Amino acid sequence: MADAAAIALPGVPGGAGLGIKAGRLADAAKAAYRAGDASGVSKAADFVVDSRGTAVRNNAPGARADLESGGYPGTATTETLKTGTLRTGVPGIDGPMDVRIMNGQAGRGAYKGPRVRTTRAGTDNDGVRSDGSRFRNNESKSQRQEESHTQLGN
């Protein structure tokens, strides 16, 4: 019987074992993030990749620099829990989106540490996935939160 992971990841050095290990590490990081423990995200990693394949630098300054170099300058935000920068008009699958890179506050619980948050352009609470695709009406609040936030390591 063929190994499903080996078929799904042909040509990956190290074979299916690396793919399986990466998946387990990603699951562990998500679980730690939901619990408000950012220590589950490696500070040594250069990038964080979400379940849809969108990669972002693993720190707020790097993520900001990448968006700036891509032509999306930021505007400073001063809301207490959302201190950081906001970029508007970033192209997404279902139209433009806003990308907030938040400094966060460690130890404040899930979705409060350093993170990237994506919303429909011009809104603060209408989250979209990191690729800009909208959520369907039957998707839970927890799924929407998880897929519109990307936890950063520092």
In short:
The protein is of the alpha+beta class and about 150 residues long.
Which key phrases capture this entry?
globular; 4 helices; disordered N terminus; 154 residues; 5-stranded antiparallel beta sheet; alpha+beta
Structure explained in plain terms:
This protein has one domain (43-151). 27% of the residues lie in helices and 20% in strands. It is built from four helices and seven strands, in the order ααββαββββαβ. A hairpin with a 5-residue loop joins strand 1 and strand 2. It is globular, with a radius of gyration of 16 Å.
Task: Count the E strands.
Answer: 7
Count of discrete structural domains: 1
Looking across the biggest beta sheet, what order are the strands in?
Answer: 3-4-5-6-7
Query: Which range best describes the helical content: under 10%, 10-25%, 25-40%, 40-55%, 55-70% or over 70%?
Result: 25-40%
List SSEs in N-to-C order: HHEEHEEEEHE
Q: First CA to last CA: what distance?
A: 42 Å
Structural class computed from helices and strand pairing: alpha+beta
Mean pLDDT: 74
Spans of at least 5 consecutive residues with low confidence: 1-22
Q: Biggest sheet, in brief?
A: 5 strands, antiparallel
Secondary structure tally, helices:
4
What form results from the Cα inertia axes?
globular
- Mind telling me the C-alpha Rg? 16 Å
- Strand fraction equals 15-25%
